[in-house]
Amino acid sequence: VHGRAKHIYSIWRKMKRKNIDFSEVYDVRAVRIMVPDVKSCYAALGIIHGLWHHIPNEFDDYIATPKENGYRSLHTAVVGPEGKVLEVQIRTGDMHEEAELGVCAHWLYKGTDTKKSSDSYEEKIAWLRQVL
Length: 132
What we know:
single chain, RelA_SpoT, GTP diphosphokinase activity
């Protein structure tokens, strides 16, 4: 489980893009739950919704219906501890690799033929992160 607070600039961009008020930004606080397989994604979602009240219309199943770029994850927003809204993302390790590094990360994750090509790939990813 990993947590993060949304950066203020990202909040502002989302408000402008969706034409919404701050009170409608439900992912200011977020946690990501990593599980071993797809079945566990849905099991974790059931547990989360059993613990806290989920916010209607704030659920996206990107596993059943991936985004155009191949992104897969479950997203939900709940009224969590202390009555604060919390976004919860649930995904597998493979889904996380693809979300963080792109579909090419799958090749690195599963292994490459030589140590040299692996090092080269990692250097390119490091360079790309600096550019972005």
